SEC63 domain-containing protein
Amino acid sequence: KELDDEKRDELFKELDDEKRRDIEVVVRNIADIDVQLKWEVEDEEGIHEGDVINLTVRVDRKHYPDDYTRLADQDEATDPILTKAEMSEEEVDEILAKIDDAEQREAKKEELLEQDRELWFAKQERRRELARSRARGGKGWFAAGAPPRVVHAPRYPFERTEQWYVLLVDSKSNKLIHHMKLLTHNAVESVALKFLAPKEGTYQYEVLVKNSAYVGADKKLPFKIQIDKRPEEEAAADAAAAAAAEEEEDEE
């Protein structure tokens, strides 16, 4: 992509025009991405056994034209659903601090997590609505309304489109922890993978971002998470809440 015309002509001098055009199409469209990771626990500073870990994977499709990014950013900044913000850790802590009962506090925490998940799905559905709307209006090529990118596969009997999959893997056990397909075709897209923190220890994970069409386009990002033992007072409160819940079930 970075070659100037003179070097490109020298490199392709033995190829005919058709083959040169073929190569230029591939170079212009082949998948090229950057991936960024961020992980956190919503209502705590450290990560303890049993916490819900929020892993955000951001994928930047560098091979998309600038219009993809510009119009996608415009949607994210102006749409009434896409601009809704998730509750901050401080807001969650403030709500939970007002609840003395451990069982009620845990139930409220789960309720807030569910609200966060529902908002995420609502945003994904809104992006799909924008995609359908722009396709009907003749603007489906752009941003949130973009259809899947058609890949260069001249020998394939049908039109082949570009798809991306995000996988979270435990490096030691080679166990698949979570997976998700990128649902939109924006230049920049983020997905949230939620999973429970295992027992105390240091864990090595890998995020794999895999492409369905191009060889060599996949990205692998290793990262390490330190899981601490849950404080005794929290563990005791959780155990009491679990015991109370079991008693209620037995009574029912």
Q: What stands out?
A: The first strand starts at residue 33 and ends at 41.
